[in-house]
Amino acid sequence: MTHAPSALRLLGSSTTANHAKQVIVVGLDGSPTSWDAFAWAAEEVTRTGGWLIAVYVAPTVEPGAEFGAPINYGAAQEARDEMVAQLKDEAERRARDLGVQLRFVREIGDTAHALTRVSRSMHADLIVVGRSSKILHHLAGSLSRRLVSRHDAPAIVIAPESDPPRTSNRKGTS
After folding, report:
1. Which residue segment(s) compose the domain that 56 sits in?
2. Cα separation of 49 and 16, whole Å?
3. Within 13 Å, how many C-alpha atoms sit on residue 11's CB side?
4. Strand locations in the chain (E)
5. What is the overall mean pLDDT for the chain?
6. In this structure, is residue 132 part of a structural domain?
7. 170, pLDDT greater than 50
8. Which residue has the higher pLDDT, 62 or 119?
9. CA nearest 105: which of 28, 23, 21, 22?
10. Does the structure show a pLDDT above 80 at 138?
11. 9 in a structural domain
12. Residue 30 pLDDT
């Protein structure tokens, strides 16, 4: 009995489809869960011999401005620039320590759209984000849920290491 060649191939640590290096986009905002996602993505890039694109997405409107709060936009922009520079430096240090090729990208706008746009433009194989720990995101819809529900870009959501395993409420039968 003969079998047709399988379209699915297991890829070793030095081989990827079409012999191209894997490109992974990771959302990075400096939160512990985004650093967990960065670490997972960096490990995957190390395993596959690819490269990593860390994306920071700034909101289009400063927090508080939508409620009419007075904002010193110059000071807010300066503080954000400093924070992004520190984030970029830390990402570059971690990538260098792991021997990972890194590109840092700063975007403005909706985070899900920005990550999808960057992944398309860079022909990324995967988007990785950390799971939000904010209760409002679980109620109103988180970034991870929005990315995973899209059908144009594969995404992986990394849960914090401190999350307890979820258990089912269903009782087993004996």
Report:
1. 17-62+71-158
2. 8
3. 17
4. 23-27, 51-58, 101-108, 126-130, 155-158
5. 74
6. yes
7. no
8. 119
9. 28
10. no
11. no
12. 92
The residue written with tokens 């190390």 in the block is 46
- The pTM of this model reads 0.70
Using the structure block, give the residue that is written with the tokens 């759209």.
113
pLDDT digits (tens, 9 = 90+) for 52-84: 999 999 877 655 555 555 566 677 778 888 999
Task: Decide if 154 is inside a domain.
Answer: yes
Evaluate whether 25 touches 119 at the Cβ level (below 8 Å): yes
* Predicted local distance difference test score (pLDDT) of residue 58: 87
HSE (CB half, 13 Å, CA atoms) of 90?
16
Task: Give the 3-state secondary structure of residue 91.
Answer: helix
Q: How many domains does the chain have?
A: 1
CA atoms of 139 and 141, how far apart (whole Å): 6
> Is 123 inside any structural domain?
yes
What is the model's pLDDT at position 111?
Answer: 86
* Residues 140 and 103: beta-carbon distance below 8 Å: no
Please give the order of strands across the beta sheet that includes 155-158.
101-108, 51-58, 23-27, 126-130, 155-158
Distance CA(174)–CA(172), nearest Å, equals 7
Here the CATH number for the domain that contains residue 97 is 3.40.50.620
